[in-house]
Amino acid sequence: MDAEAAKLIGAGVAAIGAGMAAIGVGNVFGSFLEGALRNPGAADGQQGRLFIGFAAAELLGLLAFVVAMILIFVA
Amino acid sequence: MADSGKIDPMHQFTVQTIWDGFSIGGHQIAFTNSALWMLITVVVLWLFMMGGMRQAVVPGRWQMLVENFTGFVTKLVDENIGKGGRKYVPYIFSLFMFILFANILGLLPLGLVGIHPFTFTSHFTITGVLAIMSFSIVLIVGFWKHGLHFFSLFVPHGTPVPMIPLIFLIELVSFLFRPFSLGLRLFVAMTAGHVLLEVLSGFVINSTNAGAVYGIGIGIPSFALMIAICALEVLVAAIQAYVFALLTSLYIHDAEHLH
User: Fold this and answer.
1) Which of B80, B131, B162, B189 could tie B249 with a disulfide, CB 3.0–4.6 Å?
2) Model's pTM, two decimal places?
3) A59–B247: do the CB atoms touch at under 8 Å?
4) How many angstroms away from the CA of B243 is the closest CA of chain A?
C-alpha cells in the first residue's frame, strides 16, 4: 500500500476513537441526569465531579483527534 | 463542479509576525499576532474587571456580573481545595478568566469587519506553559509543605505491601502525565472546534459556488448546522476554561492535603 494512503486510512480509523469518546461523554452526563432526577437535592453538589468525569472521557476523544492530525500533517 | 478554491482549515492557526522585534543569541524575538491577541485579551479582561470593581454598596449590573465570576471561582476553590485554599483564588481566577476571554475573543465574528481573531489557546505552546505553571505550583507547594513525604501521594491508603512498587509506578506515571493532559485538552478542544467551523464554512462556500441546486441542498443545511455548532463552541469555550480551573484546583488540593 502507498504510504500516503496508509496515513489517510489511519487518520480515518482514528475517528473511531472520537465516536467512542462520544459514547463515554454521553454515559457520564446520562448517568448524572439519572442520579440527579432521583435526588435533585444532591445534584448541585456533584457538579464538580460531573465535569471531572466529562474531562477524563473527553480527553481520549481529543487524543484520537491528535493522532489523526499527526498522521495527516506531521508524519 | 466548479474549480472553487480549496479551503485550508489549518491556515487560521498560522502565527504571523507583526513586528520583527530584536534577536537574542541568534533567536528572533518577534511580536506576532499570537502575542497581539494575548495583549488584547489582557486589556479586555482588565477593562472588564475595572468596570466592576467600583465596590458600590448597591451593585449595578456590571458589578453584579464581576461579583458572580469571583463568587463562582471562590466557590470552586472552596469546594475542591478546602482548608487553606483561599490563597490560590487569585491564581485560579486569573487562569479561568484569561482562558475564558481568550476562547470567546477567538470566536468573535470580527472577520466581517476585516479583523481576524487569533485563538492563541489553540496552540500547545501557550496552553502548555499555562499547564506547566499549574504543575509547578503543585510541585513547589507539595515539596515545600510535606518534604519527601509528598511521595506518599503515590501510594493510596490501604495498599497491600506487595503491590506498593507497582502502584507507586502507575500513580507516578499518571501524575507526570497531568500537565500534558491539562494543556492538551484545552489546545485540542479549541483547535478541533475551529477546524470544524472552517470545514463547514467551506461546504457552504463551495456548494453555493457550484450552483443553486447544490447551494440549497448542501449549503443551507450546512449553514444551519454551523449556527448550532457556533453555539456549541461558545459552550465548549466556557467548559474548557472551567475544566482547566477545576483540574488545577484539584491538583493543588493533592499538594495541600496529600489525599
Assistant:
1) B80
2) 0.87
3) no
4) 7
Question: Which residues span the domain enclosing A17?
Answer: 3-74
Cell output for B16? 504571523
Q: How many CB pairs under 8 A join A and B?
A: 36
CA closest to B185 among chain A residues: A59
Picking from A55, A63, A69, the nearest residue to B243 by CB comes out as: A55
Q: Which of B64, B40, B42 is closest to B53 using CA atoms?
A: B64
Under DSSP, the state recorded for B4 is P
Which CATH number does the domain housing residue A44 bear?
Answer: 1.20.20.10
B199-230 pLDDT per residue, tens: 888 888 888 888 888 888 888 999 999 999 99
Cross-chain Cβ contact A59/B243 below 8 Å:
no
What digits encode the pLDDT tens for the residues B130-154? 999 999 999 999 999 888 888 888 8
Could you give the number of structural domains in chain A? 1
Residues of A in contact with B184 (CB under 8 A): 59, 62-63, 66
pLDDT in tens, B3-61: 445 677 777 788 888 877 777 877 888 888 888 899 999 999 999 998 887 777 888 88
- Cβ pair B64, B232 in contact under 8 A: no
Enumerate residues 159 to 198 of chain B having a beta carbon within 8 A of any beta carbon in chain A.
181, 184-185, 188-189, 191-192
Cα B164 off chain centre by? 36
- How far is B123 from B166, CA to CA, in rounded Å? 35
